[in-house]
Amino acid sequence: MAIKAPKGTKDILPDESYKWQYLEDIFRKVAASYGCREIRTPVFEHTELFTRGVGETTDVVQKEMYTFLDKGGRSITLKPEGTSPAVRAFVESSLYAEAQPTKLYYFTPAFRYEKNQKGRYRQHHQFGVEVFGSGEASVDAEIISIIVRVYEELGVKGAELNINNMGCPECRKKYNEALKEYLKGSYDNLCETCKSRFEKNTLRILDCKENKCKEIVKNAPVILDYVCDDCRTHFDNLQVYLKAMGIDYKINPYIVRGLDYYSKTVFEMIDNGLTLCGGGRYDYLIEECGGPKMPAVGFGMGIERLLMTLDEKGIVIPKPNYIDLYIGSMGEKGKVEAVKLVNILRKLNIKCECDHMARNVKPQMKYANKIQASYTMVLGEDELIKREAKLKRMSDGETIQINLDDIEQIKKVILEG
Question: Is the domain covering 14-168+227-312 a CATH 3.30.930.10 domain?
Fold first, then answer.
């Protein structure tokens, strides 16, 4: 029996990988326009990074992480999200000692053991942006505008920005007390996980995916009624900046996000009930990971979900031209000349191919058509003697006589179309 990919994973084959490359090019272009630089972190980290940062009572840590002991007996976890590793690298490399803010972006696989759902895999991929060093609401608005810019570049319309404010630790303390009081009467009806959260981290009950828990909390107190003046001002300022940027939003007091490190601003982009991306402020995570007390804000965008959304909206990613020129050949001397010529042209960034399957000319031309080569030529004995060949444009069949020794002429014809 053939070995198959593990459940919840997916191969990205050549017929699809060009879409990923297209998205990555847009992400890079947009991120660069905001002064963001790329960071790449390891696929696995010490488990403590996530239990401390993400939170021991979150679904991610309790149910979803891929954790194992390595051969040295150390607990290792495949990273379930991109923020904590970026913070760890920021602290470990002392980037906090440089001029702030530090703006980073990344592409990363993320691993979560969960049920296969629409647009969700056990290995999925994220585009993320993290900004360290600034506690200003203007930065919160700026990273949200990055998401909006990406959607504009792709032609995505209809996604709704939902924002909330999670408050600071003091706000959370007051809110947790109110939430606990509200939940007391329904304690026996909570799922077993939420019963354990009741004392340890009451807020996490709002994030439970069990239907009975969702029903219990739908009329729970909202955290916006318990935020302090400073957090309220931050939230008000965020709205001022979003309006200044022309970004529409909806205040959703039930967004709490699934990770414990968030404080103050949290947000999600939602389309037809599906969360396309989310993020927020995490002003205490850098200190929690051993760095100085320093504010931060960021987001993660699921690439699989974005691709699925593009398909549903009928947005077509243009397919690139893979081969500019296919050089067919007859006989051994013709093949040698073809190999020589494609090697020269490739150095000039002309995408070329020649025969490596010992086909006759007719099958070679069928193959050239199948791989959608823009131009073809055939090198046989006559062409080699005359040092001339016909360059055929496949779109309309027009032929151009070219000198095999005039590389610049060949390049000009192909590039100018």
Answer: yes
